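HUMAN: Would you supply a protein with fold tokens?

ASSISTANT:
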Amino acid sequence: MMAHAHSLWFTQMIEYDVPPDRQGALAQALVARCEQLALRCEGLERVSIQASDDGCRVLQYLQWRSREVWAAAAEAFVEEPFLALLSQHQARGVNFAAYQALRSLVRGADGGLHCQVGEAQAYHGA
């Protein structure tokens, strides 16, 4: 399925591969970094920092209002000490992925999953 220009959110995921004894510290550093980012970037809608059960990975999930908002915010990323963060927490690898949301389902009061917002609504400004 091809992403459309008027899709919903733009989601950025960054997975860090770290030694198990550095997982907690990296997760805390990413939380602090995301809190600062949220203060500077109005279009950052959601953030999730997740840790794998094996202790070797941390997933940073950032959901932006749109690709355009992310692109504007990305200009400020140049100032971020990203490589220093990786070095400090001994990250052995980093994987980046980005996606356009096309549908969003939420559990309703009836217990079923319902389309919260979809393409048709996004095209009409909802």
Notes: Helices lie at 23-40, 67-77, 82-88, 119-123. Confidence is low (pLDDT under 50) at residues 1-6, 119-126. The two ends are 22 Å apart (CA to CA).
